[in-house]
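Data availability excerpt. The first of two example chains:
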Amino acid sequence: MRKNFWKKIPLKRLTKEEWEAICDGCGKCCLIKVQNDTQSIPFYTSLACQFLNTKNCKCKVYTFRDKKKRDCLILTPDNLEQVMKWLPNSCAYRLVKENKDLPSWHHLNSKDRNSVHRTGNSIQNLAINEMFVAEEDYENFIAES
């Protein structure tokens, strides 16, 4: 990977490896979101996608996630602008798109993939698998902002 690529190379010109490296591994994008008819911004819940391993915040079916879960949000440089409202404010893709610095705990700065967990910036061991909750009860799990 090119040195400090996220600071100087447009997202659409990143290699696949560089694009994937921007992800901080927090798992927040894999939380179930709910949206009512009057709100344009979705609410996060404490429920995680059934395919998220909440111990390491990695997708169990990453390679075929779009086939396993039809509403999985697959980020690309081409759709990032349109889907940003579904991403947490701390999302590294969002920060790079907004020309903001990545936090010190981000692995590209800290050189440590686990710093996101150690600093409490992930959902590690905090979310409940969506399979344990009926969809009509999701709103009972809306997380405080």
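And the second chain:
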Amino acid sequence: MNKIYSLKYSAATGGLIAVSELAKRVSGKTNRKLVATMLSLAVAGTVNAANIDISNVWARDYLDLAQNKGIFQPGATDVTITLKNGDKFSFHNLSIPDFSGAAASGAATAIGGSYSVTVAHNKKNPQAAETQVYAQSSYKVVDRRNSNDFEIQRLNKFVVETVGATPAETNPTTYSDALERYGIVTSDGSKKIIGFRAGSGGTSFINGESKISTNSAYSHDLLSASLFEVTQWDSYGMMIYKNDKTFRNLEIFGDSGSGAYLYDNKLEKWVLVGTTHGIASVNGDQLTWITKYNDKLVSELKDTYSHKINLNGNNVTIKNTDITLHQNNADTTGTQEKITKDKDIVFTNGGDVLFKDNLDFGSGGIIFDEGHEYNINGQGFTFKGAGIDIGKESIVNWNALYSSDDVLHKIGPGTLNVQKKQGANIKIGEGNVLLNEEGTFNNIYLASGNGKVILNKDNSLGNDQYAGIFFTKRGGTLDLNGHNQTFTRIAATDDGTTITNSDTVMLPTY
């Protein structure tokens, strides 16, 4: 695989990697300079490398920005910080990105569903991204694809703690095209490509000649942000950036795979443009290489794990080995298709689903499209898998059971209308979940701030002191909906928890 230069520092190995294919492309004089700087960086990289510069910026600002705390809420505008010398710093008047997609290690970024992105060389270090933690949930990598060190990973469950970063939808071929798409007018009046990165490499705080080393990497508490300027858009399929000279957080070992974000002027939102590949020192400046987001590669992996079924208002029966589509109620034979464990079943255009087995989809889930109604009937059979993803303005009437030896993960903005007592636990990341039985779930976990639990019967929650409901990262909403529920305590570990009583919840009609 082609790299950037004849020698480069690898965050995975903490040293130099020789790349002979490109050595000829570097002139002798330039090559000697680069080798000298790379060698000095390699020696310093694991022992004395500078990292977070707190000579004029408070350490807390680097951490709060990456963790979206305090004034650094996603979408916040006109954010300024006060430097140690009393001056104001404005981040070029950029809005604040949502960094919730960053795994606790900082070395991977969720992009929605059961997918995340990192760099391929992180596989050498299982601590980085092989198991990814978001809030109180752990996810394991079950498959991957990679190219030019960019890697898309499939996880064993739908990630509920975040809707994920918005991937870049385009890859401009030239710097001028990139400047048009991602450029902003900076505080000095010039147009530049300015972005942010969030990672948690081996963290040290530098103040002049003094240094405080945490001796820690891959810690969410030390997730910190970088502000950068892209200086070269395409260098062997990667972009190159340099750090801001004031808000200066230099990448170091452990930062490989961390996500880089630019503001998309067309979409009017922050997008994930790539993952951190490596660093080099050139003429005394540290440069960082970002391997670009590869939409084709991502789509290939998603297609591999998707089995699409157009219900079109009809019904299907599902077993562990096959699925049978019936065109109407009189069609008793139907059309049968084989299904494969670990694949997602993607239903479109509404209809009825009948379980004929205790279904174990492994790392596969069930995905429902937007704007339709689905009726799921279990007939006493159970389902277990990556979770349930319900599209916008869709409702899934769940008259089935989830396996009691697993946890149901619910994502997507649509509504899950649970009509039976489950005897299982649920984690909710987005959308509505209606509870129609006493103690519908044993325990309910709400994360991301985008989910809502709605009571449709008295005492729909559990009966312990917390009523079996727990609010974690960014919380969520509990709507009593005019029903009685007893609490002794409220369990909330983060901001964003809301308890309300609307008594006006209406289900969509189709």
